[in-house]
Hints:
By secondary structure, this protein is an alpha/beta fold. It folds into two domains: 5-164, NAD(P)-binding Rossmann-like Domain (Rossmann fold, 3-Layer(aba) Sandwich); 172-267, ProC C-terminal domain-like (ProC C-terminal domain-like fold). The protein contains twelve helices and eight strands. Helix 6 links the parallel strand 7 and strand 8 (154-158). The protein is elongated and about 65 Å long. The two termini are 34 Å apart. The site of NADP nicotinamide-adenine-dinucleotide phosphate (NAP) has 25 residues, from helix 1 and helix 2.
Amino acid sequence: MSLQIAFLGAGRMASAIVDGLLARGVVTPAQLGCLGGEGPSASKLASRTGIRLASDLADLLKNADLVVVAFKPQHLAKADPRLAELTRGKLVLSVLAAKTLARLARTFPEARNIVRTMPNTPAAIGAGITGWCAARPLSSADRATVTALLGAIGREIELPEEQIDALMAVSGCGPAFVFEFTAALREAGIAAGLTRESAALLSLETVLGAAKLMAATGAEPEDLRNQVTSPNGTTYAGLQVMAARDFRGILRDTALAAKARSAELSAQD
Ligand SMILES: NC(=O)c1ccc[n+]([C@@H]2O[C@H](COP(=O)([O-])OP(=O)(O)OC[C@H]3O[C@@H](n4cnc5c(N)ncnc54)[C@H](OP(=O)(O)O)[C@@H]3O)[C@@H](O)[C@H]2O)c1
């Protein structure tokens, strides 16, 4: 990529994208600039990575072609009104949870296009999955920019905006559901007689190994499950309890509650 990228907000998500772009050699530090709020995050990011620390909004945006909006969702309401003019003709990519394209268009009315994205926390180590949608059809150059940028923090998938709340329920909140599953497996191991240390190691490595096996084989999880489930064996005994307690129903209700909350938050200003 040869364009200049401005980061408005320089916290965890901006850092993950900057780190991914630089580690993969997609851009050089000279192509990136950042600006935060009143805290130290932007100067820390700039001094750690060598990207430019802008002095103000006009300085940040003057040469930028792509603007990554990475402050907190609640900052949008108080955003500087000069942003409308300063982002004229630029591509704006937002990572703000629950901020719709229509809402973003009120702050960035003159942008040449707006992309709403929903990354997840494994983005911090380049293992994220980001869903995204654009306000208008993207030019092929802008599409290449968006996929290269999101590709720096993991994988990406384009979806209609009406599916973003559902995506939030699966991949946005999903890491926390997997953390909870892993903790539950650890507690189960302790109940079964293991030390906490052993149970923690075994549960973590099991989740990691099983995820890698699914990714490496591309097989359906049900097929992999069936391969290790002999009739009346140990896995079968455990799965019988999961079925009797409606594990899938619990997870469905979990995701649907997250989706409903995401929709509520998206409806707020
Ligand atoms: N972290 C994740 O895994 C994740 C996942 C999906 C989506 N997101 C989205 O990413 C966004 C950022 O989250 P985060 O976790 O990176 O937050 P964060 O670490 O708290 O960073 C927030 C950033 O916003 C800056 N900021 C504060 N007020 C500002 C203002 N008025 N103008 C410009 N910048 C301002 C902060 O700067 P100071 O330090 O100077 O205050 C800081 O650089 C959120 O909208 C969130 O929805 C995050």
